[in-house]
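re: that complex we talked abt at group meeting.

here r the seqs, copy pasted straight from the sheet so there may be weird spacing, ignore it
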Amino acid sequence: MVADLVSGERGAFAEVAQESFTLPSRYYLEPEIHAQEIHKIFQRSWLYAGHVTDLPDEGSYLTEDLAGQPILIVRAKDGQIRAFFNVCQHRGHILLSGRGRLKGRIVCPYHAWCYGFDGTLLKARLTDNVSDFDTGDFRLKPIQLAVVAGLIFINLDPEATPKDGDLREFEASILDHLPEMPHYAARHRFEFDIAANWKVVVDNFSEGYHIPVAHPKLATLYNKQGVSSRLGKRYSFYQKTARSGFSDFETKGDEPYLTWTLWPNLCLLSLPGSPQLVVLRMSPNGPERCLERADIYSPPELESPNLEAVESLFADIFNREDISLVESVQRGLASLGYDQGRYVVDSEDSWFSESALHRFHRQVLDALADGNQD
Ligand code: FES
Ligand SMILES: [Fe+2]
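got the structure back, here u go
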């Protein structure tokens, strides 16, 4: 599906970044566009929900609110991890909250219908007199799930396959650099409520154009030379090399600084001299707010090099500096004094310019256009 070429006050979004005006500001403000994004992007894409080490045992579960839907993920007796809508099939009470470990079954807190970890309805109290009542008709509604280098993804589209999301290619790329990722565990989870559209935050992560200006300390960490990239249909990967002598980090120089993005809302980074992986997701919360959550994964050994430095770099530089940038941009997008700008793209189409930003916006427009004729 080719995107409708949308226009704003200054001009049209174009296929070629050098010729294109940026997404008009209504894409960051209008409730109708936001509703379309939930339906056509978030309810049809692979969304990150956690890691297999969050669910170590039979009955371990976690709950999430993804794309506006209550989700339950549980490890069953057969060792399989399964996802369901977190909704009782009797009268719709939410079944579980938070995270934890269950013994044997899921019990609804309202009238105590009981479900197995495979979603089967095991027991429904006092239903002997209910005519034609078959527990087999009231299984929990399943959701597609895929495990990618230990990371758990779900997709609310029942027809989705990991191929649609390039998930296997993305997995190979992560395992190439972090082969132990399936055994990593989340050491810290941060959560930030941000007064900006989710795309403003993804936009910010997609371009290195702002780094020398807005993150001068971070800019000293890597070389501009020797950047390599791999662009899949749904993911991107960039590898930069680190400079030695960065004050907070034991870096030897030439160590890789890795970033990935996965459509639509996932950004991952692995800093030089550290085996950690920071997984960032931006979940929409209305047109002008989002929840940014960061999970910091590290290898199972207790002593993990540079873990504290990664955390403070992340909390101080990425978050303090970036949140103020994106909230300022959201206020500007809502101003009568702004509608569109231009993509600043260098001759190599590099990460240090806004080439990936244009690509991301193209994907948004394609997804919104898809199904318009349904
Ligand atoms: S709503 Fe769950 S048992 Fe009634
Ligand atoms: Fe930034």
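couple things i noticed - Residues 307-333 form the longest helix (27 residues). The helical segments are 31-42, 167-177, 198-206, 211-214, 216-219, 307-333, 355-369.
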